[in-house]
Design a protein that fits this description.
Rossmann fold, OB fold (Dihydrolipoamide Acetyltransferase, E2P), 18% strand, globular, binds iron/sulfur cluster
Length: 439
């Protein structure tokens, strides 16, 4: 590999690569840190999603080469691809593509195997500190989709203008669609043929996805759209108001502790206790103390609400508590790195199959096909900020003619940000604070 570390970082920055599997952390910043391990996250633990499995089967060589570039920029000597041991075809494809220093790590079929704190601990034995990130313990974790984008940016100078989006759930034709960033979700959902006229859409999987309208447009972080019956219990839970969620928590929590017993962050030794935040709401709602500060440690994985026999949501309570604490100017008080894994962690892991049954979506667990044609619509609405940090600044104006792949917004110098490119050729129709419209 003759390309220099600096060239790799520059090419990744120029291409506007951001983390595909999370909030969109600018990848050129992440891969510039010194690390011991580079971990490819292919666990894909959200129920029903298949996009990463498709990538590992069809782009194994690109994933491995992407890892090699990140090992070069970070100086890491060890690379691991973390995926579930039940992904047989993907393991076979990756085994054929492996390079020196890179191994496959097979994980159990549990949720949330893809939580990067969980993955770092399983693979390296290290524990990410409370409220920390993997680099705090010498690890860079990248989703397999991000690694493909890194590979294409370095080898072909290709900017991120396309996404593979899995559309599944209550549909006749679960499908992975390759589409332009900025494509409207309603055009994509049509290809999967929803079974009912009225449905609710989630951006993401059933556990961590949020409800979206059908004018939502695909971003660099969109991985899946879930079509759910509007009368399903999952939709009812996700649309509960904060007031109702809090009242229910106060009146029917029986303090059984099931939520805490399964909490993946608690099992890694972090001081987060979902049953205690529920109890605190009985008498000390709004107080800042070591229990409410646990809200800064919550990953919002949602396992506590699946485990709760009373259909309560400590996840939701933690989210609301955190928002209130932040508004009042409070900061997280838990930052320990002296942690030890719970002795019963292995026994308390939550099987993915049981999860699917509990959330009532087992009937939608079907094979997903790859849609043969790319969806390049006549117009796109490209969100200006698709990354953690600040939005890039537009370098085009209304009326500008753009080619596909042309830079339309540039990351400010030294800011945590990511470049943005036109995903279709055409004319910039409008720019507002949130979007660039091209037709
Ligand atoms: S599992 Fe439910 S009922 Fe039990 S302590 Fe947690 S929130 Fe309360
Ligand atoms: S959502 Fe629930 S289970 Fe997940 S980390 Fe937060 S408290 Fe723990």
């Amino acid at each position: 590999m003759e390309i220099s570390r600096e060239e790799i970082i520059k090419k990744v920055a120029d291409a506007g690569v951001v983390g595909c599997g999370g909030a969109g952390f600018p990848t050129h910043v992440k891969i510039a840190a010194d690390a011991d391990f580079v971990i490819a996250n292919g666990a894909e633990c959200e129920p029903l999603l298949k996009g990463d499995q498709y990538l590992m089967e069809t782009k194994a060589a690109e994933i491995v080469r992407g890892m090699r570039y990140v090992m070069k920029t970070s100086g890491a000597s060890q690379g691991y691809i973390g995926l579930k041991k039940k992904y047989h075809r993907q393991i076979e494809a990756l085994n054929k593509a492996l390079a020196p220093g890179i191994k496959i790590f097979e994980m159990g079929n549990v949720y949330p195997a893809g939580d990067e704190h969980v993955m770092v601990n399983e693979i390296t034995g290290r524990i990410v500190p409370e409220a920390g990130i993997p680099i705090n313990v010498g690890c860079i974790v990248d989703n397999v989709g991000t690694l493909v984008n890194i590979c294409e940016a370095v080898e072909k100078g290709r900017p991120v203008t396309r996404k593979n989006v899995t559309v599944t759930g209550d549909v006749e034709n679960p499908v992975i669609v390759r589409c332009a960033v900025g494509a409207c979700v309603s055009d994509i959902v049509k290809l999967a043929k929803p079974r009912k006229q009225h449905y609710t859409l989630l951006n993401g999987g059933p556990m961590m996805g949020d409800i979206i309208n059908d004018d939502f447009c695909v971003t660099k972080t969109t991985g899946a759209i879930l079509v759910l019956p509007s009368d399903s219990s999952l939709v009812a839970k996700k649309t509960r108001t904060a007031t109702v969620a809090m009242r229910r928590a106060k009146s029917i929590c029986e303090q059984c502790m099931d939520c805490t017993l399964v909490c993946p962050r608690n099992l890694l030794g972090h001081r987060i206790f979902p049953h205690k935040i529920m109890r605190m709401n009985f008498f000390a709602s709004g107080e800042f103390n070591e229990i409410s500060s646990g809200s800064f440690l919550c990953s919002q994985c949602g396992l506590c609400e699946v485990a709760c026999p009373q259909d309560l949501s400590p996840k939701r309570v933690f989210r609301d508590v955190k928002e209130n604490l932040v508004k009042k100017g409070h900061k997280n008080m838990h930052t320990s790195s002296q942690l030890s894994v719970h002795s019963e962690r292995a026994l308390r892991q939550f099987p993915a199959q049981r999860l699917l049954q509990r959330i009532g979506l087992a009937e939608f667990d079907k094979p997903v096909s790859f849609h043969p044609e790319e969806l390049a619509p006549a117009k796109v609405k490209i969100a200006l900020c698709q990354n953690v940090g600040s939005a890039p600044l537009p370098v085009v104006k209304a009326g500008s003619e753009v080619k596909e792949g042309e830079l339309i917004a540039k990351a400010p110098e030294k800011a945590l940000s990511a470049n943005l490119h036109a995903s279709i050729p055409g004319t910039v129709v409008k720019i507002d604070e949130k979007y660039i419209y091209i037709a």
